[in-house]
Amino acid sequence: MASTTLHSPVISRSLRQITGNSLTWSRAFAPDRLLPAVSHSSPLRAVGGSVITCTAGTAPVAAANLAPGTPVRPTSIMVIGATGTLGRQVVRRALDEGYDVRCLVRPRPAPADFLRDWGATVVNGDLSKPETIPATLVGVHTIIDCATGRPEEPIKTVDWEGKVALIQCAKAMGIQKYVFFSIHNCDKHPEVPLMEIKYCTEKFLQDSGINHVVIRLCGFMQGLIGQYAVPILEDRSVWGTDAPTRIAYMDTQDIARLTFIAIRSEKVNGKLLTFAGPRAWTTQEVITLCERLAGQDANVTTVPVSVLKFTRQLTRCFEWTNDVADRLAFSEILTSDAVFSVPMNETYQLLGVDQKDILTLEKYMQDYFTNILKKLKDLKAQSKQSDFYI
Amino acid sequence: MTTGTAALTSPTTAGFALRSRNGITTDFTLNPTLSGFNCGTAPARRRLVLSRASSPSPPPPETTGKSPEDNNNVNDDGDGINVEGDDQKGSSVSVIKRLVDANPVGLGRRSRQIFDEAWRKFSELGQISRTSRSDDESSLLIQEGGPMCEFAIPGAQNTTVLVIGATSRVGRIVVRKLMLRGYSVKALVRNADQEVKDMLPTSVKIVIGDVGDPATLRVAVEGCSKIIYCATARSSITVDLNRVDYQGVYNLSKAFQDYNNKLAQLRAGKSSKSKLLLAKFKSADSLNGWKISKGTYFQETVTAKYDGGMDAKFEFSESGDAVFSGYVFTRGGYVDLSTKLSLPLGSTLDRYEGLILSVGGNGRSYVIILESGSSANTSQSNLYFSRIITKVGFCRVRIPFTSFRPVNPADPPLDPFLVHTLTIRFEPRRQRPSEALAGMSQDLRSFQLILEYIKALPTGQETDFILVSCTGSGIETNRREQVLRAKKAGEDSLRRSGLGYTVIRPGPLMEEPGGQRALIFDQGNRITQGISCADVADICVKALHDPTARNKSFDVCYEYVAEPGKELYELVAHLPDKANNYLTPALSALEKNT
Fold first, then answer.
1. What is d(CA A241, CA A239) in angstroms, rounded to the nearest whole number?
2. Chain A residue closest to B129 (CA)?
3. What residues in A contact B80, CB-CB < 8 Å?
4. How far, in Å, CA of A240 to CA of B192, rounded?
5. B297-306 pLDDT per residue, tens
6. Whose CB has fewer CB within 10 Å in chain B, the N or C terminal residue?
7. Which residues of chain B lie closer than 8 angstroms to A249, CB-CB?
8. Cβ contacts of residue A240 below 8 Å, gap of 6+?
9. What's the whole-model pTM score?
């Protein structure tokens, strides 16, 4: 990790007790100015020497509730990362179940109108600019955090600094529940920056003393569409690795559904849940499935994992390619024949969910291909022009 | 950011975009060499700068508007919105595309796209739990109400729903649920303040109006196929209650029926909404074909002793009314007024769901008897009866075919297709003194019935008008009476309107998420529990396309859950779950037209 000069001080495993450097932000974000309500639960001031502990919060949540003012309705929730793959399903589910949903989105030239169209309230804010956060949290009962930085930006800004700011804000403002989406096995792979960050955030959340639920996820079925299904349909080359890693993909709509069951269940409070799909798949298996359903062979470009690893090592040599290195970091995991899956029986039981209701990848892909092939057929029937690419 | 998948955001351009990219990318295979990757990183970063910079200034050849690529450059994380492309767009885009390909800026952008695509593919390999940005055409199917979305409802696209009380506790959720399912939604609001607008999703069409003002409603119902009424008076002042809960429902159902009738007229009575005229009593001629007969239920000669005599006549009065009047003093006697139905060619009664009679009575009850069977051989007919009660004065009575019971219990249920004879019978049995004439001495054995018309009500598969009423529990006792009176009057006016209706009477509303607890559907005002607003909204939305919900009124509340340790029964029912339809089984057990 020596070469990752930018990141290692903050997020290396040895510094799991979040240390010195991470405080640069905390100091800038002077608690007394912005969050005068925090008196005893000051994670920020506890920052004596080198260790942030959020353990000060033993009673503060209850205390925050007793504060005078309009009581916060339990149906009011805030979704962070609402435009993302999982986030939008969470928003839809919440709206459908009758929650009042507020979405924190970054100000952008083309606003996320679809959220407003569904009936959610959109507030502008940016986790990487902590001063924009507190105002958006007024009147919120539960925060559901499905945000992850975009691939092209440095991991640290949103996923670590932003989240820390958010959790501290939530804490200070008496948010009554915080739901955090993490990655399965993130505690076992400290060498992957994103997983390390997620793990540290989990810890930070636990120490903060907020009522929380941590949900670890394995993989989204929705992601497979763009990665395999679409390229196969288009006769483009599919890029796969020869890694034996297995992932239990899950439908984001199922994740959203289970999440809301978990939020409402008192039994789940403060627990760590892992959601995994019904079966773990290797890349090869997924490609085979897609080929079968599409009725055509895929043009597979297999990239050996060693190449990925090598690229990562190489990109880490230069500071300006560090982001790229972080993005390739999962290759470390791919080399091991890790299985990203957990038995779900206990979770189903805890949440009172029937296993039959969880969508399998076969069914999901089948639905997708049936629909898309029908749609493509309609498109072909509509257009008289057969040669498209002149 | 995936500039490569730019054009995929609009459905019609999808096919073309796949190909154009395909033509180039297939030859492109990345050679996993050292230099390849090293270079790869630089453009990956520079790309950001470039695409952002290029977004404000439109590329030279495009004068018609934004090209798809440009669109996507602005929307830089690609996470955006599906721009619904119209049909012409596909061809114009392809022209633009050709131009773009020809000029150097376009070529540059193009090659950058290709490289980005390859690099993105490569770097995606290194990630397992991140998904690619969902701006590809998967969004067509999964995201915005496509078939793979769990909320999608077939037919929602062609349905416009007018929501009254869209800012109320229930209405707010109703609107969101409708939007999620892809309905077009109109909302009637009294004023379109910013505050009100903020409460509603942006693509809800706002109509300004007031349920108390029939003129505004005529505009509001235009183009709507369904109405959900969840407004209620904000105060318990009788005037307010009357205006919103009674007159409002009356005005709106009238406006909607008028609108439907207008459509029906446009189609010259061929519309599925038009009623079928069976008999209209406008002139003396119209009385032809109606026969009067007398009879008794007792066959024995003994009864002759008690024969007080009976008489009846059906005549056209000077005032222009067809009057059926007479008296029956004989015990067990009755008089019938019957006719053979002559339906217009091509129409059969099975396309109708009931009869509507416009009559002016004096509070007596009558029995309507339908004879069904082969019209050639009337001796084989089955008889079916249904009792109606008239008011003092004119009223319209709806008699659904489902309410007819066979005279001989062994007969099969009524098949409207086979009905050939209609009889109106008066019998002195089971007559109740009319309340309106209380105090006056009423002879229950004499009767007078003015007939105006008899029509068959067209059947409809679905409900047209959903009214959220209340059961009265949870309202303070001193105002419950007047609230209920207004609500009841509103419900009645809706039932009489001839629209397919669903009246939902929820228990006290609670603001909590829906779908949590089992629901009880019941009729007869026996429920005790509350219900969440979201569940009521869900029932409204589900009832829209549910044939079993048509012409039903029902109460609904949470299932009673005993304190732990005090349970009497074990809970066997399951909570409503994914995509299930709890409404149909629940409602199919309930009575129609109550």
1. 7
2. A219
3. 83, 110, 112, 114
4. 54
5. 776 655 555 6
6. C
7. none
8. A228, A283, A284, A287, A300, A301, A302, A303, B125
9. 0.68
